[in-house]
Recover the amino acids of this structure.
């Protein structure tokens, strides 16, 4: 596994996909793809198309080798973009990308809670690349939950040890606080 890559644990990934239900024919965007585990899991469960975005050249190279090893490197339904998340969102929007039904956002954890999550989510929801009923799943540390973001509604949050998964959709956030530990 490349240095600095923190893959989603099997337990969290299983719970995530159990909560999502069927992803048949979904168009999936896996930002901060790392090992590609979330996008590959979606593809194995019937997603029609997956775009992986990874900034690190070394990690992207390892993901490409993993796709090759799985016999998936030539799949038209799988695309790997070696660039940062903001640039990828902009390029997908400019290229008239098919609307994404499901997006995984799992940026590296940074000590002190500073993260790319908020600006990435703001850019993502403003980009026009999301389907009207798209679900965005954000993985982060439990000690740094997402703050309320304008135009983005928290649908659910679930804790798994030190990991917090937050499900988001477009819309006004509800008044009051976000639910915890469901």
């Amino acid at each position: 596994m490349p240095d600095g890559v923190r893959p989603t644990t099997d337990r969290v990934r299983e719970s995530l996909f159990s909560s999502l239900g069927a992803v048949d024919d979904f168009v999936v965007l896996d930002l901060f793809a790392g090992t590609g585990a979330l996008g590959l899991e979606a593809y194995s469960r019937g997603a029609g198309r997956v775009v992986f975005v990874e900034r690190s050249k070394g990690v992207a190279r390892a993901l490409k080798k993993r796709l090759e090893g799985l016999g998936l490197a030539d799949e038209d339904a799988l695309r790997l973009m070696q660039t940062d998340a903001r640039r990828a969102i902009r390029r997908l929007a400019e290229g008239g990308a098919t609307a994404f039904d499901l997006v995984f956002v799992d940026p590296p954890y940074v000590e002190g809670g500073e993260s790319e999550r908020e600006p990435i989510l703001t850019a993502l929801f403003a980009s026009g690349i999301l389907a009207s009923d798209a679900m965005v799943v954000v993985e982060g540390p439990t000690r740094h939950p997402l703050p309320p973001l304008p135009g983005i509604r928290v649908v659910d949050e679930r804790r798994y040890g030190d990991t917090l998964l937050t499900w988001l959709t477009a819309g006004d956030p509800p008044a009051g606080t976000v639910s915890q530990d469901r």
Q: What stands out?
A: Residues 177-182 have pLDDT under 50 and may be disordered.
